[in-house]
């Protein structure tokens, strides 16, 4: 049960974030897990520490980018970082959760469901899973599902084919969300200090957004995970925020 609480806490922490910080490069994934760690119960924290690899030093945040680092070694995992829709702003699991070969469940939503289920086997001596990897995959994919262009359109490859200028730098829209937004916010508002940025987000969770916690905890129709809801949220953010950001930086 403590591990399931961890899953829920990560979910809540991801949704409770600073405005416009929907993208997750290495720094973003670190922030997600660092915040989540602070909300773990003592029992959940002990179990997470037990499952982490020795070189993590008991720090979940230090391995939250691991799933990106092993993408070339575990090539089968590449489709698990995103879900594409056919040019529509809604997610349909049966239609959209598959890889380029049509294999079902091979998307970020399927990955969240899969690794949550694997972690539920904790304590079962017959479990065939490497739960350290399950934990690191899950923590990472919970970040990915909140990046609007990781739940984007197949036609533009999640914004990778859309060329833009972020202030004076030529890049693509996906990279803006993955890296540039966080880097710029950290530089302009937090004195280039990641810990200061994390503290600010934490203050918003406990203060400005505290009234919204019950809403974040709602998971209709699913008892453990609700990644379908997260995909809907991600698409909503993409529609509502990209247009305003375009006016500020893409010209």
UniProtKB/TrEMBL annotation:
EC identifiers of the protein: 3.1.30.1
GO BP term, pick one: DNA catabolic process
Keyword Oxidoreductase: no
Gene3D superfamilies: P1 Nuclease
TM ranges: none
CDD domains with a match to the protein in the record: S1-P1_nuclease (cd11010)
Top-rank taxon: Eukaryota
Catalytic activity: Endonucleolytic cleavage to 5'-phosphomononucleotide and 5'-phosphooligonucleotide end-products
InterPro entries assigned: PLipase_C/P1_nuclease_dom_sf, S1/P1nuclease
Name recorded for this polypeptide: Aspergillus nuclease S1
Taxonomic lineage of the native organism: Eukaryota, Viridiplantae, Streptophyta, Embryophyta, Tracheophyta
């Amino acid at each position: 049960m403590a591990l399931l609480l961890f899953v829920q806490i990560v979910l809540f922490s991801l949704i409770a974030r600073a405005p416009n910080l929907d993208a997750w490069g290495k720094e973003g994934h670190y922030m997600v897990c660092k915040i989540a760690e602070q909300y773990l119960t003592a029992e959940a924290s002990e179990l997470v520490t037990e499952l982490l690899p020795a070189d993590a030093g008991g720090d979940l945040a230090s391995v939250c980018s691991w799933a990106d680092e092993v993408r070339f070694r575990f090539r089968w995992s590449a489709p698990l970082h995103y879900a594409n829709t056919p040019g529509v702003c809604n997610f349909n699991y049966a239609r959209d959760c598959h890889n380029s070969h049509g294999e079902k469940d091979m998307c970020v939503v399927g990955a969240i469901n899969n690794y949550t289920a694997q972690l539920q086997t904790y304590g079962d001596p017959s479990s065939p899973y490497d739960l350290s990897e399950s934990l690191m995959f899950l923590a990472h994919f919970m970040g990915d599902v909140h990046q609007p262009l990781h739940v984007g359109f197949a036609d533009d490859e999640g914004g990778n084919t859309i060329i833009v200028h972020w202030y004076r730098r030529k890049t693509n829209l996906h990279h803006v969300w993955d890296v540039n937004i966080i880097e710029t916010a950290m530089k302009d508002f937090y004195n280039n200090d990641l810990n200061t940025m994390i503290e600010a987000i934490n203050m918003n969770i406990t203060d400005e957004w505290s009234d919204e916690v019950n809403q974040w905890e709602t998971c209709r129709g699913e008892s453990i995970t609700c990644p379908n809801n997260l995909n809907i949220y991600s698409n909503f953010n993409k529609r509502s925020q990209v247009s305003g950001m375009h006016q500020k930086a893409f010209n």
